[in-house]
Amino acid sequence: MNTSTFGPSGMAGATQGYGAPAGGQFAYPYPVDRLIRKESALGAIREIAPPEDHIGLQLFPFFEVPHDDFFFDYIKGDATGLAPARAQDAESELAQKDFFISGQGRGSIIDWAIKDHYDPSDVNNFRELENVAKQIQEGGSPLPGSLQTTLNELPFKLARDAAQRRRRLDNRIEHIIMTSLVTNTYTYNDGKVSFATPWGRPADQTDQAPASGTYGGTTHDPIGDWVEVDEFMYERHGVNMKRAILGRKVANRFYASQFWGARTGLITQPGSTPVDPRYLMEGWGPVGALNAVAEATGIAPTIYDSVYRTRAIGGTTFVNTRYVPDDVIIFLPSEEDIRDFDSSPLGLGKVCTSPHIEGNGGAGFYEWEMSTKDPWSYSVGTGIKMYPIFPHMELTYTMKIDFDAP
Fold first, then answer.
1. Which pLDDT tens digit goes with each residue over 308-340?
2. Among the four given CATH numbers 3.90.1690, 2.40.50, 1.25.40, 3.90.550, the one describing domain 52-72+102-137+165-400
3. HEC profile for 302-356?
4. What is the C-alpha separation between 280 and 292, in angstroms, rounded?
5. Band of the pLDDT at 300, cuts 50, 70, 90?
6. Can you give the pLDDT at residue 101?
7. Do 366 and 355 form a contact (C-beta atoms < 8 A)?
8. How far apart are CA 298 and CA 289, in angstroms?
């Protein structure tokens, strides 16, 4: 077999046409068209995308359950009452013991999955190129750059599509958690599957306006508003609010409150033009005000502005959808407070996940592959069996901010 090659330094041996040696093997070390066009690849320019980080599983981590359907009992706190009196010679009354099971909670896990399909031409072309590359390498010749690039395309595409599928599943988990916290329900309808899950938070703990009114001017009272929520939840449920999730737009309004005047020492005469402390005090501004609110109330804030991005097939316009609206604050108790009166492993809530056969009988994410014949093609998918459960959604609170000027 003739294994001579054609390269930039000239020809060795007889050739059959431009770039093809007598043995019929093409072994050019660099794409010919790029030599002719004299072009250089300078890499890719990527858009600076908005944040897409997730915090849902940090707040409500995975919890493995052995079956898709599960239940749990709600047991109300025992009634204590007052001890009765008795005459000195009388027998004391028998204490009444009655554990009040007020209801039963149930949950069902849903299978979420997505797949990619690769046409026969994609797979067959890759297999044929693999055979060509194997023959060239067995002949002792280097692979052409264009052939190596083409061989890398399908594995790269498979890896990219796998990451995309996993990202969409992660987005779905985040969407379920955050939408549930914000709206007190989760509704799904894709035309094939339809369901709605109400979580049971009282109506007067959802989308409530702050006590001080609008945040569009200077009369709002961030510390007072947070303290009032904390007092309300403690009086009703016996828990303190310890965490707050809010967007930067809300946090950036805290510093504008007129109540910071005494704190900053910048009180002006009544009726005069208000002084903006950001331009007079080093270290004061939205961040300083947020830290001051957290310190005064004992509620730790988390700035959260993440989105998921969608684009119509064939379109060029991206739509960024927030998981938490920029005018909503979510208040949560601490897990330690929940454990004081709840011995179940669910706590404030968990994302329950159950086993799947494609995951070797294990819970969590799984993958599957499928090949068919006539025509030969290839499908690969990623999925997870999961759904969250919030047995104590009544211990959460959401505040809706009005940014319009009073």
1. 988 888 888 888 999 999 999 999 999 888 877
2. 3.90.1690
3. EECCCEEEEECCCCCCEEEEECCCCCEEEEEECHHHHHCCCCCCCCCCEEEECCC
4. 18
5. very high
6. 42
7. no
8. 14
Angle between helices 120-138 and 145-183 (to 10 degrees): 140
| Residue 251, amino acid | A
Contacts of 142 (CB under 8 A, 6+ apart): 27, 29, 136
| Per-residue confidence (pLDDT) for residue 255, from 0 to 100 | 86
Give the tokens for residue 36: 């002719």
Give the integer Cα–Cα distance in Å for 86 and 132. Answer: 100
| Prior bond of 391 cis (ω within 30°) | no
Q: Which residues contact 23 (CB under 8 A, 6 or more apart)?
A: 1, 2, 3, 4, 139
Provide CB contacts within 8 A for 154, sequence distance 6+: 118, 122, 123, 126
Cα R_g (the chain), whole angstroms: 32
Secondary structure of the chain as H, E, C letters: CCCCCEECCEECCCECCCCCECCCCCCCCCCHHHHHHCCCCCCCCCCCCCCCCCCHHHHCCEEECCCCEEEEEEECCCCCCCCCCCCCCCCCCCCCCCCCEEEEEEEECEEEEEEEEECHHHHHHHHHHHHHHHHHHHCCCCCCHHHHHHHHHHHHHHHHHHHHHHHHHHHHHHHHHHHHHHHCEEEEECCCCEEEEECCCCHHHCCECCCCCCCCCCCCCHHHHHHHHHHHHHHHHCCCEEEEEECHHHHCCHHHCHHHHHHHCCCCCCCCCCCCHHHCCCCCCHHHHHHHHHHHHCCEEEECCCEEEEECCCCCCEEEEECCCCCEEEEEECHHHHHCCCCCCCCCCEEEECCCHHHCCCCCEEEEEEEECCCCEEEEEEEEEEEEECCCHHHCEEEECCCCCC
List the one residue out of 378, 308, 364 whose CA is nearest residue 158.
378
Residue with tokens 């890398």: 152
pLDDT at 299: 97
- The domain spans of the chain are 52-72+102-137+165-400
Q: Which two tokens stand for residue 349?
A: 């809530």
Tokens 């190129």 belong to which residue? 129
